[in-house]
Amino acid sequence: MTQATPFHPDVESALSALRATPPARVYFVACGGSLSIMYPAKFLLDQHAAIPSDLFNGAEFTARAPKGLGKDSLVILCSMTGTTKETLAAAEFARSRGARTVGLTTETGSPLGKACDHAIGFEAPYTTGVPIDAKNSNYARIYQLVMGLVALTEGTDYSQALMSSLAALQPAIDRAHTAFAPRFADFAPRFAKQEVIYTVASGASFGAAYSFAICVLMEMQWINSQAIHANEFFHGPFEVVDKDRAFILLKGCDSTRPLEDRADTFLHRFGAAENILVLDAASLDLTGIDPMFQGNLAPLIFFDTLWRFAYQVADLRQHEMLEGRRYMKKLSY
Ligand SMILES: O=P(O)(O)OC[C@H]1O[C@](O)(CO)[C@@H](O)[C@@H]1O
């Protein structure tokens, strides 16, 4: 691929540098909420390219020191703040092994931006509270990078379809807020009283379930949680299902939907519908999003709308979301 793509300039600049010698292997590395976007990014790469990839927590990556990591590797890292020490150490470790590195961060001049060969900026409403257009989010930028890698390694260029889909994403999110509002108003009072809420998903949606469980329910609401893969559900977790147990099930529209459908059937067989909050991509108006990317973009809609649900739960519990933490960023660990 030699022609310029319509991607964001930071993405295009990283891709230009990779064009002469595309990587033979990709590692997706981050921590916490930033790690959660690596699941759908790897899913997208696996869908479209034969290039092998793996996904690691930052500290695990450095400690495990994969033997395959070397000059032909590309390590894609993400840290919203650009300061998470495990992610920075992973970037430095990758470079010490001769790998090429790309860091996604809200501040390209942040420590992560500086520690990587290429920095890709994105926007996040998370700490600023200022709403963004989802086409400028971390998901949007990493998807551009992934589809750029697909073009480099497979010769298939879907950049226009991706960019037009990303442009249609925010309106789809806004419509979903309206569509889900009555369900959220109904579920919030019950879920605010729960001590445990599990989140279930698979495929492109697993990352959204993971970040909602560990970053929102546990970190920001101190509600016990676990992200359960929709098929792993049948390999242990389903034993806890009863009429009182609370679940959030994300039903996406990627190729793994049958896994989520099966979990849905079981949950409704032994659980109570009033304690199973199902967000179903089939009920969403995805106008303008190319069918090829609908499964990849549905998780953003789930996460954005669930974030609003979390604030409703937080209000009822009188437990502040971001200010309620007792350890994170409050002491050294
Ligand atoms: O590396 P980042 O994206 O700045 O993450 C910092 C922190 O933010 C979270 O993603 C959410 O608070 C945590 O999981 C993580 O420790």
TrEMBL record:
The keyword Transferase applies. PROSITE patterns: SIS. InterPro entries: FrlB_SIS, GlmS/FrlB_SIS, SIS_dom, SIS_dom_sf. Gene3D superfamilies: 1.10.10.2240, 3.40.50.12570, Glucose-6-phosphate isomerase like protein, domain 1. This is SIS domain-containing protein. Keywords: Aminotransferase, Transferase. PANTHER family: FRUCTOSELYSINE 6-PHOSPHATE DEGLYCASE (PTHR10937:SF14), GLUCOSAMINE--FRUCTOSE-6-PHOSPHATE AMINOTRANSFERASE, ISOMERIZING (PTHR10937). It comes from Cypionkella sinensis. Pfam families: SIS. Residues 14-161 form the SIS domain. It comes from the Bacteria.
